[in-house]
Design brief:
This protein is an alpha+beta fold and 194 residues long. The chain has one domain: Metal Binding Protein, Guanine Nucleotide Exchange Factor, Chain A (Beta Complex). The protein is elongated and about 80 Å long.
Amino acid sequence: MRRSRPIRIVSFIILIILVGTYFFVTRREEQTVVTGTAIAATATPYVEGSFVKPADSVLRATLTPEMYDVTQRNGTEAPFHNEYWDNHEEGIYVDIVSGEPLFSSKDKYDSGTGWPSFTKPLVAANIKTVADNSLSDERTEVRSVHADSHLGHVFNDGPAPLGLRYCMNSAAMRFVPKNDLVAQGYGEFLSLFQ
């Protein structure tokens, strides 16, 4: 006995809906696992000098797609739609890959650009600058020393006295609040906020 054409069409549509739902739910679970892993991997206490950069496959598994794109492919996140552009809490910003200390909230200011901006690094030895000719204008790229993560760019249009604007990507950093500095291995910076 052959099924009628309408029953076959309805069965096909139900099959498409079930398969689509399965892939949607599976993808959402994968994103949750990736994000949770990235947060867990970077929240361990920092020990200076102990960092060894993980293999690319590990970075892909532990960073969110945006974190990976920014830090490993020199990407740029959207302005005004990132985690730290308007964060006013006291604490420090560390490299999302290595945990090396980069910037302090004491040196953060609102540049109006939609990205977290700083007047100077917290630990100058943890950042390096390189010429960036990827656009028509030459820019100065900022990278972390130990993880070699792309962080953003530095410009000469910042406030006095240094006149610098370190325009960073939130996706390249993790914020450590003042009250968590000791527990996460950054106790040496607590005096900045007392």
